[in-house]
Amino acid sequence: MPKTLIICEKPTATEKIAAALAEGKPRRRKLMGVSYYEFERDGMEMIAVSALGHLFTLKNLRPMRDYPFYDIDWMPVYEADKKAKRTQVFIDVIRELAKDATDYISACDYDVEGSLIAFNVLKYLCGEEAVKRARRMKFSTLTTDELRHSYEHMMPRLDFELIDAGITRHVLDWYWGMNLSKAMSAAVEAAEQRFAKLSAGRVQTPTLKILVERELEIKAFKPEPFWVLSLILNIDGHEVTAEHVRSRFFDRSDAERALAACKEKLARVSAVKVRRYQRLPPPPFNLGDLQSEAYRSFGYAPMRTQQIAQALYQAALISYPRTSSQKLPSTINYRRIIEQLRSSEQYGKFASELLSRLDLRPNEGKKVDPAHPAIFPTGEKPKALSGAQQKIYDLVVRRFLSTFGKPASLESVRVELDVGGELFLLHGRRVLEEGWLRYYGRYGSMEEIVLPQLQEGRELSIKEVKMEERKTQPPPRYNPASIVKEMESKNLGTKSTRAGIVQNLYKRGYIFGNQITVTELGVEVVNTLLRYCPEIVSEELTAEFEHEMEAIQEGKRSREEVIAKARAELDKILMKFKEHQMEIGRSLMKSYRITLMKQRVLGKCPKCGGDLRVTISRITHKRFAGCSNYPKCTNSFPLPQDGTIIPLGSICKECGTPMIQVNRAGRRPYKMCLNPNCRTKSDWRRDVVDTRKK
DNA sequence: GCAAGGTC
What we know:
The protein is of the alpha+beta class. 40% of the residues lie in helices and 22% in strands. The strands form 6 sheets. Strands 2-3-4-1-7-8 form a 6-stranded mixed sheet, with helices on both faces. The protein has a 6-stranded antiparallel beta barrel with strand order 9-10-13-12-11-14. A 4-stranded antiparallel sheet has the order 17-18-19-20. The protein is globular, with a radius of gyration of 31 Å.
């Protein structure tokens, strides 16, 4: 009896593929805790089984004692990474089910990585014959119609061009990243006999470079003074401030001359310009947009938003979150979703309003994704959500509804005021029709500036004309959300990896703070690599990889050719690196030490003004905050033993000790002062009891 | 140890 094994990328996709292809209901089975689905189609027996993303990864075949090192091969992820034990049962189950399979279908996401995931499963778990026989389903959403269509129009073989491109990408990233990381650590070891965990990579290093460049701009920035003139008026008992038409005077005497001209007591309204305009609804969320909106609205780091979105997805409340798409194809049946939302207390009236319209169409954005639509709520009713989950869910639902809303109608008013020939401006803004802004609620809140009725020719009494000195500001620092956005615009990393790569830069000690500052170490790593391997620092490497991948996909270059070229190039770079490793190692270590020392400082000692530093007790080996003036000053505070401690650079309003933030795995970050007896902590114990009661 | 990519 012939049996077809369908390889899918992830469990939820497996379920949908089985449901779409089965005649009748697929039978859900379980083996070693892993679900798979049996069903019939056209008289054939079929089994849909799931991978869990990549089940295989590249690994060095021997310990990597020296570099250059190129001896790598594919291995089960669970063997390479002990923390990924979960993937082992998936491998066992697929191997078991492959035993009596006669035909194979690759039904992973239709992109380079998906093609490779299925290929490795077929090659290492089903055998070479399976690779030759396997066919490929291509689809861009997991809707019944599209899945059936893609089954009917299957590619009769695997997409080896995409697979080859994928393998090459993995190998090149490994070669470049691992060898350069090793080269830096080895340089430190050779020069200082100490281990320092240093890293470089095609994505992380250009990202760090962007941050270093901003750091340099800020350091080189010379604030320039400028002057502003403002006119304070009294209109019908309200105080209103108008700004001079020249928003900045860089020449003080110009500002003074303008000020001197304003000696009159009255300002005359010389023009009133009213403009009506529309603001279109926003496109639906992709992951990057959700991350930056959640940072703006709640201050959540992109990594946190990603984790919360993943939890909501697993609770079947929202669609697949790791997407770059801003499209909502009608096949997701958004009318049904909005109908389901109608029964919700919070969103019901918005949903009803939308459903009463005939033209229900989303305002889509330009970005697409080969495998997933934009993020949308499934319409399921949420049960017991945590506070943070509730917030992200609310944001997703409101954004989704907003996308279908009518444009908002706004009115802006520009009032010109003449004071002795000097022109001042008043700006007002009013929402005429809220449209989609109502659905978006607090996330789209538009500040209204309502001006009193002002007719041309009216004279207003002046309270004061003010001249103030200000300074130009340096360009703003990146924050975790804006650097993720910058990476996206430069095509660095993927939607799934960007937040994690930024987190990694923090973990390495290359950067710190929410307003991102690059450490001495981060700057030195970039400088070193700029000197010896500018290729890895440049965003161009990603672009170059992409060209090579394209050439491979078009059959213009072979995988072997591209890999051999990279090896030759790396050989030269790494040799030069090694020649200079003593000086490289010394300067890396120097900046490493400075960064470590600075990282330990939590703030000023309230007793003596010295530095309070994270210190490890010689006796108990536990960490605490101790004063740098020890033994002259014996001031100290206990610290939590788990998690990362981040100095906040501020002091407690109650007790004056430095504030810190504690980040612990799986818990939400919390802020506290160092003093355990501070009044701010008097209710901590009660909180713990309260939580337990619930 | 060290990358970047997929997944939960």
